[in-house]
Write a structure and sequence with these properties.
heterodimer; A: about 500 residues; mainly alpha; two-stranded antiparallel ribbon; 2 strands; B: about 120 residues; Helix Hairpins; 4 helices; about 0% strand
Chain lengths: ~500, ~120
């Protein structure tokens, strides 16, 4: 039963060890970090298998019963998110090591492990204050990773990112204070139980708290109107870090999904209309901002950052419906868009370091132009949602789930038009980067030609694309698993009973 | 009592938000510090205000007590905000030394350059 806490404890033990003992030996730190991440992946697979039976496993820290002690909760959704984190982390870590990003500054691996600790903890916790603490852990690690290897633009973007998130954390605390004052509990399941007993006309304070929480999570998920930090941050972060950050926006989406189903969800009169009312229009505007940003970007990294924004809009439009069908479609798209965004950042990193900067202007072709063009093409069609990769299926599932009369017009228009504009943006960027460059003569200078990418440098991006292909091939079994996941998520009584019933045996 | 606590939270928040919207690092850091003071008082008050009462149950009688949980929460919040302020000061300082300006917004020149 102690397996549930391992995704938190393992990186938490490893990170200080790497930071203090192995800080002068990059080879040792790399070995430990990879070993730790592989072990995390193995644990995540084990937990995934454990949760697949549909039971809600509860881990009581210090064996205190639920509303008084802190609990970790493992159900299908948490297990899926932890597995997603571990898989992505391994790809990103191998890329960072192969390309030497990790050696460009200090403490990359220690921060990386702390980041994993925070993300896994946020996915597993069953208590909103504990979620705040894990958010802070993942944020403080992300501050360090964001400014890894320094540079003027990166430091300034990092400062903005930190200020934005500290303001968000303060808002989180205000939300928690309001919630505690009005319900007297901070356990996610217990909040749901208490809020359900509050008559709608007296629920004003709870509604304020629920809305504040949603704004906080929207900051993390980069939802309009608090999306403006994302393009600058992702475009200026080191590319492998930006690829890892692909999971960070999903932490926000996960938190909205968890808290606004279990605590304030459908069936709870006082608060059930809140999320759907505000989330849906915000998601549509987010798609529009993402699409126009992709079309208007003049550099490659901001272009990818805006496409991440568009994908968050598509994800949240599905989650905003708060029905099991739409949520399972949204979860498929969540898994897909995480890998698609990470792939794009990894491929872009390979290309950009062999060109002078990431501006979208024709430059002489780099080495292995054909290989990079093929990888970028594959990742871009994944992100934009064209067949045969999983982006197409993901968007199809989302569209299919959003067929209610009131939503179909807005949702279909936004998703389809957004996809079209995104395809245009990517097609333009790809043709400038890879086709027009072949017509540009190489300058007659004796600047050293960048080395060709070694197989290990290309492998993580290719593995990510392979995951997208596998998601498309095994879409059937996966989406039936995700339907079970969504069904379990909306079974609030099951969750509440599992968490709040005192454990009988030791 | 209530009016004092409520207006303290309000004034601290207002001052914090005003300073947060300035464009230079130092006022922004002060603003975030004020906001975190405001939220600490706010959380403290979320367990209801009580004077001269201990945060423990008495087993010897019907003595009234004050809610201990917000006190624990506020301790966590203070520690975290303290650490975060230290990180922010360091990053602000590094950003100032790197860019020779302590403006928080990215100017157009920095936007066009490569990292």
């Amino acid at each position: 039963m102690h397996w549930i806490i391992l995704p938190v404890v393992l990186p938490a033990m490893l990170a200080p060890l790497i930071g203090f003992v192995m800080r002068h030996d990059i080879v040792l730190a790399r070995t430990a970090s990879v070993a730790g991440t592989v072990a995390l992946l193995a644990v995540a697979l084990g937990l995934f298998g454990m949760a697949a039976d549909g039971a809600t496993h509860v881990y009581r820290l210090g064996d205190w019963p639920a509303p008084f002690g802190i609990v970790l909760v493992l159900d299908r959704l948490s297990a899926l998110m932890v597995l997603l984190t571990a898989t992505l982390a391994l790809l990103v870590l191998i890329h960072a090591i192969a390309t030497g990003w990790d050696a460009r500054g200090k403490h990359f691996h220690a921060l990386f492990q702390f980041q994993l600790m925070g993300i896994c903890g946020a996915f597993l916790t069953g208590d909103v204050f504990n979620m705040f603490v894990f958010f802070e852990v993942l944020l403080i690690a992300s501050y360090g990773l964001m400014i890894h290897s320094g540079g003027r633009a990166r430091m300034q973007a990092g400062l903005q990112y930190v200020v934005m998130n500290l303001a968000g954390s303060t808002l989180f605390l205000f939300a928690l204070g309001t919630l505690y004052a009005s319900t007297g509990t901070l356990n996610i399941a217990d909040i749901g139980r208490v809020v359900a007993t509050i008559p709608p006309e007296e629920a004003a304070l709870v509604r304020v708290a629920a809305m504040l929480l949603m704004i906080v999570f929207a900051v993390k998920a980069a939802l309009f109107p608090v999306q403006f930090w994302l393009p600058g941050t992702y475009a200026n972060a080191p590319a492998p870090v930006a690829a890892l950050f692909a999971i960070m926006t999903k932490v926000g989406a996960y938190a909205i999904l968890r808290v606004h189903t279990v605590s304030f969800g459908p069936g709870i009169e006082g608060t059930e209309d809140l999320a759907a009312t505000w989330l849906f229009p915000a998601a549509i505007i987010t798609i529009a901002i993402g699409a126009f940003g992709v079309l208007g970007a003049r550099r490659l990294m901001p272009l990818i950052a805006f496409s991440v924004l568009g994908s968050m809009g598509t994800l949240l439009i599905a989650l905003a419906a708060f029905t099991p069908e739409a949520t399972s479609a949204g979860l498929y798209y969540l898994v897909h868009s995480t890998f698609a965004a990470a792939c794009l950042f990894l491929v872009a990193d390979l290309v950009v370091r062999r060109r002078a900067g990431d501006t979208l202007t024709p430059r002489p072709p780099t080495v292995q132009n054909g290989l990079f063009a093929a990888l970028f093409f594959a990742a871009a069609i994944g992100m934009a949602g064209m067949p045969p990769l999983s982006g197409f299926l993901g968007k199809l599932l989302v569209l299919d789930a959003l067929r209610a009369p009131g939503t179909i017009g807005w949702a279909w228009t936004a998703v389809l038009a957004g996809s079209l504009v995104t395809i245009l943006g990517f097609a333009r960027a790809g043709s400038v980067l890879f086709w027009k460059s072949t017509a540009t003569p190489a300058p007659e200078t004796d600047t050293p030609v960048a080395a060709a990418a070694r197989p290990l440098e290309v492998a993580p991006a290719m593995a990510g694309l392979a995951v997208l292909a596998l998601l498309a091939v095994f879409a059937g079994p996966l989406s039936s698993y995700l339907q079970d996941t969504a069904a379990q998520l909306y079974d609030r009584a099951g969750y509440t009973t599992a968490v709040l019933t005192p454990e009988t045996e030791g | 009592m209530e009016i004092v606590v409520a207006s303290a939270v309000g004034v601290l928040t207002a001052g914090g938000v005003y300073l947060l919207l300035r464009l230079r690092t130092f006022p922004v850091i002060l603003g975030l510090a004020l906001l975190s003071y405001a939220v600490n008082v706010f959380i403290f008050a979320s367990g209801r205000l009580a004077i001269d009462q201990s945060p423990i149950l008495s087993k010897y009688g019907e003595a009234s007590y004050t809610d201990p949980l917000p006190q624990a929460l506020v301790l966590t919040a203070i520690v975290i905000s303290f650490g975060m302020t230290a990180v922010l000061v360091m990053i602000g300082l590094a950003s100032y030394l790197e860019a020779d300006t302590d403006r928080v917004d990215l100017d157009a020149a920095a936007e066009g350059e490569d990292a």
